[in-house]
Amino acid sequence: MINVTDLKKTFGKHQVLKGITTQVDQGEVVALIGPSGSGKSTFLRCLNMLETPTSGTIAIDGIELTNPQTDIARVRQRIGMVFQHFHLFPHMTVLDNITFAPIEVKGIPPEAARSKAHELLARVGLSDKADSYPSKLSGGQKQRVAIARSLAMEPDILLFDEPTSALDPEMVKEVLSVIRGLADSGMTMLIVTHEMKFAREAADTIYFLDDGKLVERATPDSFFTRPQSERAVRFLEQVL
Ligand SMILES: Nc1ncnc2c1ncn2[C@@H]1O[C@H](COP(=O)(O)OP(=O)(O)OP(=O)(O)O)[C@@H](O)[C@H]1O
């Protein structure tokens, strides 16, 4: 579903991604882990062209995002993104946050969009919050609304950039359990995370990035019990 070839990204003189090549299958759940500054978020952001790659190619279902002739806005509709800091619209209710893009971008009739939003709120356990404003929600609730908002666009791929890093510890579990449910439902997902237990339990594949390179790509069992590189061994010693 996603094909990445020799992806490089440079900010000024700093080469952050140093040639990443990989493929992600439909329904695959990938956890991106690695030291701070290794390029995990940059890699994720390149996948929906929030960052423009310096070189290399990215194709989604054969459509090359890196081809200047590709209609990026259209392909991006198929790729949802959930951020560390939620990015909800503060002046809109939860329901309006979820229905805004389906109505305005996709042209879904408002009644249908609202009905779908209620379904999604039930799915993330927030049926009673449809008319609340984001400021009245906890961090965990905001993040679950952000997930429902992404799902409302019916994406084929969901990208999560450290979805629990800004949350108080007691809220991490509720958000991870929603993400876990999505993983089990067959959604294709890439998740930058520092939650090793979650990565181990929920992912099909671990990507270990270090210094802009995809150093290891392995099943969780293999990565966590038999890391192949010295760098991964050191990293796991520090975080486990
Ligand atoms: N827009 C930008 N302009 C300049 N440098 C950037 C930009 N975005 C990221 N970088 C740099 O690229 C490097 C990799 O950043 P990135 O956020 O991708 O790492 P990460 O592995 O996700 O780190 P963390 O786990 O700390 O979030 C860092 O040195 C960062 O300072």
**What best-fitting shape do the alpha-carbon axes yield?**
globular
CATH fold assignment of the largest domain: Rossmann fold
Assembly of the depicted chains = single chain
Could you name the CATH homologous superfamily of the largest domain?
Answer: P-loop containing nucleotide triphosphate hydrolases
Distance between the termini: 32 Å
User: Biggest sheet, strands in spatial order?
Assistant: 6-7-8-3-9-10
Largest sheet: 6 strands, mixed
CATH architecture of the largest domain: 3-Layer(aba) Sandwich
Number of strands: 10
Please trace the helix and strand order, writing H or E for each element.
Answer: EEEHEEHEHHHEHEHEEHH
